[in-house]
Amino acid sequence: MKAPIIKCIVCVFLLVSCTSKKSPVEATVISPNGYTKIDFFLTSRGEPSYVVYYKNEKLIDSSKLGFELRESLHLSENFKIINVKKSTTDETWDMIWGEDAHVRNHYNELMVELEEHSELKRKLNIVFKVYDDGLGFRYEFPKQKHLNNVVITDENTEFNLVDDHKVWWIPGDWDIYEYLYNTTKFSEINALKYYKPGTHLGQTYIPENAVNTPVTMKTNSGVYLSFHEADLTNYAGMTLAVDTLNLKMKSELVGNNQNIKVVRDLPFETPWRTIQIADKPGDLIESKLIINLNDPSVIKDMPYFKPMKYVGIWWDMHIGTGNWDYSGNYHAANTAYAKKMIDFASEHNIHGMLVEGWNTGWEKWWDKKNKKIHFDFVTPYPDYNLEDIVSYGKSKGVELIMHHETSADIVRYEKQLDTAFALIQSLDIHSVKTGYVGRVIPEGEYHHGQYMVNHYQKVLEKGLKTQVVINAHEPIKATGKRRTYPVAIAREGVRGQEYNAWSNDGGNPPEHLTIVPFTRMLGGPIDYTPGIFNTSLKPYKEDNQINTTLAHQLALYVVLYSPVQMVPDLIKHYENNPALQFIEDVGVDWNTTKVLDAEIGDFITVVRQEKGTQKWFLGTITDENSRTLKVNLDFLDPDRTYIAKLYKDAPDAHYLSNSEAYQIEEKEVDSKTVLELDLAAGGGCAISIIPKE
Ligand code: NOJ
Ligand code: CA
Hints:
Elements lengths: L5 E9 L12 E4 L5 E7 L5 E7 L2 E8 L2 E3 L9 E16 L7 E15 L6 E9 L2 E8 L7 E7 L2 E4 L4 E4 L12 E4 L24 E2 L3 E4 L5 E7 L7 E6 L4 E6 L8 E4 L2 E2 L2 E7 L2 H6 L2 H4 L15 E6 L1 H5 L15 H13 L4 E4 L30 H10 L3 E7 L4 H17 L4 E5 L14 H17 L2 E4 L15 E4 L6 H5 L9 H4 L34 H10 L4 E3 L4 H4 L5 H6 L4 E10 L3 E8 L5 E7 L4 E6 L9 E8 L12 E8 L4 E6 L4 E8 L2
Parallel strand pairs: 23-24, 23-29, 24-25, 25-26, 26-27, 27-28
Antiparallel strand pairs: 1-7, 2-3, 3-4, 4-5, 5-12, 6-11, 7-8, 8-9, 9-10, 10-21, 10-22, 11-20, 12-19, 13-14, 13-16, 15-18, 16-17, 17-22, 18-19, 30-31, 31-32, 32-37, 33-36, 34-35, 34-37
The structure holds 1-deoxynojirimycin and calcium ion (CA).
1-deoxynojirimycin binds next to loops.
């Protein structure tokens, strides 16, 4: 139930005369707790600018705001302020599914209406929302006489830093986010070292030294910042160009090969440009800033989807024990294997099953150059009895997850969208994993440009109409859209588990997932696919391995958030392994989430309470260093006793040499208990904490 919205216009005043170009007119807005302050002003040239303070210290130095337009003068100077409005909002809304049952949305707003001095008197509004945990601002292009539409060739939103912060970053690739994070000083960011066309799944385009968002930083005084965007709708994705010499960042929108970034009719609003601000790294994760900056849900409920764990005919293809392709050696997507998987899932509290390689077209997957892609999203291979599998699954409480690998041939996919989703609907199943591997067709478009943003949106809307939830791989980044469209259940957009199976660069190092929660995950749920038990990957992949311990893999079900969590390993690696009990027990929908302790790139401890029960689940992981952590269970109900079941690294476990060694320990705990946990190098610990009957 929604709490009443308290929205009050505090003051509206018309600034009658502000003609002096020398004395900037200022407007200020401060967060509800008084810590974060934004000053807005016009420079002597009438350029809109802002400064951000946190606890009285400058956090973002004077930074300009504006646009370059094609066939029109830049919209960036010669402005006057014609109106300023301030208001406060304090509301609470419920998540249909999510990390927390209730979300508070509390901010102070400043809206500045600008008009050019010129004859055209073009107008631009800038809206700032200041929260206790950061801020967002966006541009509004209001309806006006002399501007009906725009072709944006550049958005010039500046973020000028005050110091050479420590930064966790990936390059500003226009096509893919699947990189390991770099940890460097801001002045040492060098995204161009990744610009080697054709080397990275054939997708790389990095036009300049820029980073993708969320990009996260730590200041010398210990404040954590993360820059991102919220509500990316009908606009281009934003990378941040980096000026390492002057410690400045500037928005660089993803364009197309015509150098067009955004085409829009007026009126419209841009996505929010966001800065999360936190004293502790865990507060970045607990923050709801990004999702709050999206519109409320367009639906009240979605009874057709419950958060779930899912198995899949998937890992086989990545470790080489199966093929997507029917004409190949061992076509994994066959009826017998699917039924075996359903049996396994139904015995272990797993309610979904993904099957890849079920449909015709995989034989020519890579033949993009010759435009021979012919994925068909309704025709199964002969050894895959779709209807039979769906009804067998239903009889066992396991629903099929449809798979659409579009190979980024958008033209082809959009032609088939209606029939593809009609088939899903006719089977009475409710989820699809989409994929966008490779270069975008039509040529000249990039995965993160406006054309693709609109495509991903089209699929969400189709899902909404047909009651189908979407888990997109090679997606556009998550920007909190799941609030408005709860069918947007998860995305990849990260270097996932699959890289451990086949990358030739050593796989994801142990520290990878101690950074991802503070960067990529701030955007929203991740389909990382945790839970590989055969971490050595023997005998399938002699040159690869998972660079974590088994206990670390278990802990990821809590550390990484997604309402769909895969249980990806081969059945035989789970069977008879007592650690499977944790996966069987762990929740996927939450009442509360807390980050108990963390340091980005070193370790993270997360605890979540399952929605609708009194059960808690705790996950903690470390990087390549072993460490001992004290974990205070004071979040527990003081009037209860609980049974904690700890899945922990064996004393001699190590991610390189003894990664599958773990121990299970059971003990009674309560809110006064402090656990001492020894994590191995690359290790972790997963704990279920269940009230004692
Ligand atoms: C890349 C996806 O990330 C992976 O999960 C999938 O198996 C392949 N594409 C094939 O669709
Ligand atoms: Ca991928």
